[in-house]
Every structure is written in structure tokens, then in C-alpha cells.
Design a protein that fits this description.
It holds the Pfam family XdhC_C. By secondary structure, the protein is an alpha/beta fold. Helix content is about 35%, strand content about 20%. The chain folds into two domains: about 10-115 and about 280-295, no CATH class; about 115-275, 3-Layer(aba) Sandwich (Rossmann fold), CATH 3.40.50. It has nine helices and eleven strands. The strands form two sheets. Strands 8-7-6-9-10-11 form a six-stranded parallel β-sheet, sandwiched between helices. A five-stranded antiparallel β-sheet has the order 3-2-1-5-4, sandwiched between helices. Strand 9 (about 180-185), helix 5 and strand 10 (about 205-210) form a beta-alpha-beta unit. Helix 3 packs across helix 8 (about 260-275).
Length: about 300
């Protein structure tokens, strides 16, 4: 049943579109071949999540076994960047104990969901452009700001985006998943410093970026060192962010300093760090896989 719907079940294709768009874990089960008497025909599909099922392959023990197999694969894919495919064979008179006695092959395609979280602290001009640019990418984005009613209306409809009012930097950082990529660019330098302090204290972020000049970072670095952070920890912070790479750049910003340009360069910096995150919105079989299934 579709979330929030009390009347009409959500079809498998509507559920698949929604789950892919939101980057949530799910499995697509497709009946690819059949022999003898079977509840459904080849091409029948259903979508399965950890707590919901959309559409049907015909019901009965066979369908429950498909759901069980899909959920086992989903549980095994958590934290992995690739779900992959498997072919499950069901003898309806044997494995499934159904009287129709046919034989069915079901292809399970498992999508583990977005493997990467990007935390953006600050809903100012650069933060807004970062969120816009991240929209087509397969990342879960958490957008934080300590100010109330600061997020634009369009943010509510952007996929894989969660807006969070975060007046307490330490509390906001404590709620991030392990391996988060964090970007700090709030309206207040003291808040920026508190956030970097909290992120380094956690110690499990994949990357930490801070907007600002080299002089800003020199001031922050001194204060963070006094707070007990080691040189190795401080070296993990990239500041400034959004600087074009090159042998002569020396982390000095030049050229276009508009919010869009800074955001674009920052996303470009992040992409190589996230190259292990596979797209979650692609489906279907490669030709070699398809030949193997149908042979």
C-alpha cells in the first residue's frame, strides 16, 4: 500500500519509481520463465522492501518465499554499494508445496539504496547552490541550519533531501551516519568552528570541508589544536572548499567567486571521493546476464 494511502494499493511500477527516486533500499522481483501451471505469467513483477510489498506474483507459499528471499538479499546488501541480481528457481509442487505443480524462475534485482550521505551545514547562497547541484546525484543529502524557517519551499520536493533545523551543532553532528561527507558553511564563524570541532571529535566522517579563506582556517586550526585535536585530525579538513585544483592553485581562490561557481567546484572536489558510490536508479540486465537467464 502506498504511504499515506488508505484506499488504493501502489502499483509495482509506481513504487519502483518512488523508491528509486528517494534512494531507498528495495528489490524488484520479475517472473522471467514458467512451465506448467503457474499463478502468473512471465513478466509479472512485484517490488519488495523491508516492511512492504507492492503488487503480486500470485500469492501463496511461492510468493512468500520470493519475499523472504528478497528481504534476505536486502539485509545482506545494507552498507554495500552494489545489490546485484540473482535467479531463484521455484518448483511449485516441491519447494513451494502448491498444487498447481508448475515451475517458475524469478529474477531478483536488489537495490541497496543511496550509499553516500552528504551533510551540508548552512542554508545560505552557497549551501543552496550545493543542494541544487546535488539533486541529480545518488546521494542522501542532509541540509542543516540553526535558523528557523530558512529552507526554500522547493526543498520539500527534492528527492533524497532532508532539511533539519539544527540550533545545536554537537547534537546535529551526533545524528549523522558513519562515513558522512560534511561541508560547513554557515552564516556564523563561531558556529562553523563548533561544527568542525564536533565533526573532528566524532572522527568517523569520510571528509570534512570548510568554506572560507586561509586566514580563517589558520585561526580555526589554532583554536582547534588548543581544544585537543591532533595535527593528523586537522589535516583532514579542506579549507577553503571550491578551489580549482592545479599545481599553482595553492588553495587560493581565483576567478569566479559567485555562489554557483563555488558550489560547482565543491561538488567537483567531492566526486572523486565518492566514486565508490554506485548509482541506485539504474535497472535491467546486461546482455550477457540476459542470455544466461534465457538459455
Amino acid at each position: 500500500m502506498a504511504p499515506g494511502s488508505a484506499s488504493r494499493p501502489e502499483s509495482w511500477h509506481a513504487a519502483l519509481h518512488r523508491l528509486q527516486r528517494e534512494g531507498l533500499p528495495h528489490a524488484l522481483a520479475t517472473q522471467v520463465t514458467s512451465a506448467g501451471s503457474t499463478p502468473r505469467e512471465p513478466g509479472a513483477r512485484m517490488v519488495i522492501t523491508a516492511d512492504a510489498v507492492f503488487d503480486t506474483l500470485g500469492g501463496g507459499t511461492f510468493e512468500y518465499q520470493v519475499i523472504e528471499a528478497a528481504r534476505a538479499r536486502l539485509a545482506g546488501a545494507q552498507g554495500d554499494s552494489e545489490g546485484g541480481m540473482s535467479l531463484e528457481a521455484f518448483s511449485l509442487g516441491g519447494r513451494s508445496g502448491q498444487c498447481c505443480g508448475g515451475f517458475v524462475n524469478v529474477l531478483l534485482e536488489v537495490f541497496p539504496g543511496s550509499a553516500t550521505t552528504l551533510a551540508i551545514f548552512g542554508a545560505g547562497h552557497v549551501g543552496t547552490e550545493l543542494v541544487r547541484l546535488a539533486a541529480p546525484l545518488p546521494w542522501q543529502v542532509r541540509w542543516h541550519d540553526s535558523r528557523e524557517a530558512i529552507f526554500p519551499d522547493w526543498a520539500a520536493s527534492q528527492p533524497r533531501l532532508e532539511c533539519r533545523h539544527a540550533p545545536d551543532p554537537a547534537a546535529a553532528v551526533s545524528e549523522l551516519p558513519t562515513g558522512t561527507h560534511a561541508l560547513v558553511l554557515t552564516h556564523d564563524h563561531a558556529e562553523d568552528c563548533a561544527l568542525v570541532d564536533a565533526l573532528l571529535t566524532r572522527g568517523d566522517c569520510t571528509s570534512v570541508g570548510l568554506i572560507g579563506s586561509r586566514s580563517k582556517w589558520a585561526s580555526f586550526r589554532s583554536r582547534l589544536a588548543v581544544a585537543g585535536h591532533s595535527d593528523a585530525a586537522l589535516e583532514q579538513v579542506r579549507c577553503p572548499i571550491g578551489v580549482a585544483a592545479g599545481p599553482d592553485s595553492n588553495k587560493k581562490r581565483g576567478g569566479d567567486k559567485t555562489p554557483y561557481a563555488i558550489a560547482l567546484a565543491t561538488i567537483a572536489e567531492l566526486l572523486p571521493m565518492m566514486e565508490g558510490a554506485k548509482r541506485t536508479d539504474q535497472r535491467g540486465l546486461a546482455p550477457d546476464d540476459l542470455r544466461q537467464v534465457l538459455s
